[in-house]
Structure formats: structure tokens, C-alpha cells
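Ticket #4471: structure export looks truncated?
Reporter: QA, pipeline team
Priority: medium

Steps to reproduce: submit the single chain below to the structure queue and open the exported record.
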Amino acid sequence: MPIRTASLTKRISENGQALHRAMMSRGDGQEPSADEKALAEERQHLKEEREKRKAQALEPKKSAVDKLVRTHHAQAKEKPKATKDAHDAIKKPKARRSRAEKHAEQAAAVEAARNSRKKAPTK
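Actual output as written to the record:
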């Protein structure tokens, strides 16, 4: 997992303090302990990571114009040649009734219902 950039300086500082404590506790003329070697190796790794990030930050970045440029353009599809059968196969849209026609039809249905009640034979 990558190390967060903001925490690199703090981690290098903490590692340096721990390494210094390990070196002071070692004493003169003794070989460095495994912990001290591990701390020194980790410190070197953190410093390399910091340098790598600095170099990456100096590289030119993509501008907004570069990001907007499309890299892929859709190719035009070939249209099938119009034939007589294809022309006949196209369905025409249904004729739509207007609002006035709908209301007239509804009024006629209401009138028919009213008249049918009057004409019904009574027993």
C-alpha cells in the first residue's frame, strides 16, 4: 500500500528519533542490533519515497485542454439502401383524435346512455 505523502516527513522524523535512541543505547564498539538495522533501512526507504514523489511532482501534468480532447471518434455506420419492400414496411403513425373529438364522443355516449334508460320497457 502506498505511503501517504503528507505523513512522509513525520514518519522520517519519528524514525530518525527511534534510530538515534537505538544508537545511543548500543554503546561504543558494539555491532548494530537487528532493530537498529531495520530502522536505518526503513529510514532510507522513506527518504527514497520522498525523493520519488518530489521528482514526480516536478513532471508536467495534463492540462484541462489535454483532458478534454477526445481520443476516439465514432465511425459513421453504413446506411442500408432503401428498397421498395423496406419503404412499404415502415409503419405510419396512428391518427390521433383531437380533444374536441374525444369530448364529442364522450357526450354522445352519455346521451346514448340517458336515452337508453328512458326507452327501457317497464314491467
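Status: closed, not a bug. The export was complete when the record was re-opened. Leaving a note from the reviewer for reference: Helices lie at 8-26, 34-58, 64-68, 84-89, 99-119.
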